[in-house]
Amino acid sequence: MHVKALLLDLDGTLIDSYKDIAIHLNRTLQHFGKPSVEVESVRYRIGGGARELLREFFPQELLQEALAVFREYYLSEPVIHTKPFEGIREVLCRAKEKGVELAVVTNKMEELSRLILERLELMSYFSLLVGGDTYKEKKPSPLPLVEVLKALVVPPQEALMVGDTETDLKAGRLAGTKRALALWGYVKVSEEVPEYTLQRPADILRFI
């Protein structure tokens, strides 16, 4: 299958960022006098966005304040250990050369996602970036994918959603795209069965 558009998740698909997320989570927990968590445990808590991550540690009445603190810490230092997964830059470069449309569809907030991609010198590859706060719904809702495909003028059956979680796969299914599971990421999959599984970023090349 050759596609006209690649829709790519960010954390755990394009970038290895869990250590930075853990750093800012722990800073936020310390701010509120709560105990820190193990950095490695955060790897498997990623995918739903900051609100879902913090919901595990804060009661509803503190959630908004905790979210504001977390975002402030993260925006102040968006890239500490974060880096693209090996082979990602080459995949993006080849896709661009072949005329494949590239878009990021993440549940991370848009401003922070853009800042990280700019720092890593990846933003220029993408026609569109959609964050968890860009529209009124985020993945697993199909809305972000539907809006991206509409803007790119690409039918869903000619697009591939690449992500590492069930959230990505469900959004792709509901939007009508093909789906590929990025096994190098922070994989959390149960009921969703993707059309394709990818062992490493270079495997994306077979679709372009």
The stretches of 5 or more residues where confidence is low (pLDDT under 50) are none
The helical percent reads 25-40%
Whole-number tally of structural domains: 2
Mean pLDDT: 97
Principal-axes shape call: globular
Computed CA radius of gyration, to the nearest angstrom:
16 Å
Tally of helical segments: 8
CATH structural fold name of the largest domain: Rossmann fold
Strand content: 5-15%
The CATH H-level homologous superfamily of the largest domain: HAD superfamily/HAD-like
- End-to-end gap: 8 Å
Order of strands, widest sheet: 5-4-1-6-7-8
> Can you tell me the CATH architecture of the largest domain?
3-Layer(aba) Sandwich
Given helix and strand content, the structural type is alpha/beta
Give an overview of the whole structure.
- The protein has two domains: 5-16 and 82-207, HAD superfamily/HAD-like (Rossmann fold, 3-Layer(aba) Sandwich), CATH 3.40.50; 18-76, DNA polymerase, domain 1 (Orthogonal Bundle).
- The protein has eight helices and eight strands.
- The chain has helices spanning 18-31, 39-42, 50-55, 60-76, 88-97, 110-119, 143-152, 166-175; strands at residues 5-8, 15-16, 83-84, 101-105, 128-130, 159-163, 178-182, 196-198.
- Strands 5-4-1-6-7-8 form a six-stranded parallel β-sheet, with helices on both faces. Strands 2-3 form a two-stranded antiparallel ribbon.
- Strand 6 (159-163), helix 8 and strand 7 (178-182) form a beta-alpha-beta unit.
- Helix 1 crosses helix 4.
- The longest helix has 17 residues, at 60-76.
- The chain is globular and about 50 Å long.
- The mean pLDDT is 97.
